[in-house]
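Q: Could you fold this chain for me?
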Amino acid sequence: MKTTFKQTLLALALAGSVLTAQASISGSSTDGIVAVVNDEIILKSELETARAIIAAQASEKGIQASQAQITQKALDELIARKLQLALVNRAGMVANDNIINEQILQIAQAQGINTLSEFQAKLDGEKAGSYAALRQSVIENAALSAMWQNQISNRIHISSQEIASFLNSPEAKQIISQEQVLIPEWQTSHILARVDDTQSAAMAEQKINALYAELQKGANFASLAATYSDDPGSASQYGSLGWVNEGQMVPEFEAMMKKTSSGDFSTPFRSQFGWHILKVDNTRQRDITAQYRQNAAREYLFARQAPQAEEDWLQELRSGAYIKIYE
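A: Sure. Below is the predicted structure, expressed as structure tokens.
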């Protein structure tokens, strides 16, 4: 998920409020409690942080809102967050550390810092525990996003008939491109010398170089692939991988595929699987206009129905929760 500047500010702000909440619970702050949501509390500092974010968003969009309206919206969003996080915890959702690190690095880079260690030193230098609080906030946001997608997707069912009807409407003609959409595809074959417990990287490289030398002498690529490739699936098809498009293969394979001429084979190259030689048997431009338009229509209809589905879900969460708001 790409982190926007607004998400960066939100994550940093929430991290600050987490630290304040921890201080309050430990008795080192006079921060007051404004609401109780089941077993969780909402502190005045959390509400003020949320109010500031919502006020800034309203101002940016040119929306006129009273202080009372901003406060109510902030409180509602904090209550919803507490309820959803409780659901996340009950579901036992576990964060992917690589994805979390990537998101935090995006936040760091937005501030001109290029490593996580430098970013951690900067945050903790300003306030002890800031980096850990930020990381926790990013983990929570990622879990909430996944939970939202799961819950809302299960509540919205868009039929093929709805998509067809929408695509025939004047509205669709205005918002969905009517231009033809073509994507490049490559018909490829490969020979793999796998690197694993039975064959070291040096052995695999030696094997692939020997096969490459045979190809340079005029050996038949399909025959060599069927006989010597360590990829049993493609070897049974004489090395054929069929038609592939961008994003389907590992980066090293795709990069070599793109610079290999149709009818030619590549030089040996390394990927996470081992050493390869690939052959581009053919290329084409595939028309995916109909698929593109259907996907665009589905996304539009989903986005149009999502707000009501989200409201229904949040009302269900609130109806089954204990919520006490202090004046």
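A (continued): The first strand starts at residue 33 and ends at 37.
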